[in-house]
Amino acid sequence: VDIQDKMGEKKVLALAMFIVAYTLAITTFASSQIPxxxxxxxxxxxxxGLYLINNVPNPSRDCCIAAKSVFQRAMSDKTGQGIRDLCNxxxxxxxxxxxxQDKEARLPGACGIKTSFxxxxxxxxxxxxxxxxN
Length: 134
What we know:
Transmembrane segments: 12-30
Domain Bifunctional inhibitor/plant lipid transfer protein/seed storage helical: 23-119
Structural class: mainly alpha
Radius of gyration: 19 Å
Pfam families: LTP_2
Largest sheet: none
Number of helices: 7
Organism: Cajanus cajan
Keywords: Disulfide bond, Membrane, Transmembrane, Transmembrane helix
């Protein structure tokens, strides 16, 4: 093996490492990037990022586990504030994180989650004010 082959291998390896690092950097969201309106929704935003930015056709198992937890918590709030908070989170965080609204709307169905509200209205509707002033 001559020196030029080894140099070529090193360049290919360096390029591959750069691509992996870049992919991780753009698809892993730091907690500082997640707005305060998303209190408790970090798992959904983090684990579902690849699906929601349209990099993969289907949500991962971890995404669906996180999404199920977030949706169940939101729907268990009998005042409806949990759903309003989740919808506001998606509307505020989604654009800044590069999420596609159609993917946000399809996420529950893609994960087999039955919702008690319209995800189309949730994602595309107007922002609502937080009703809890605690």
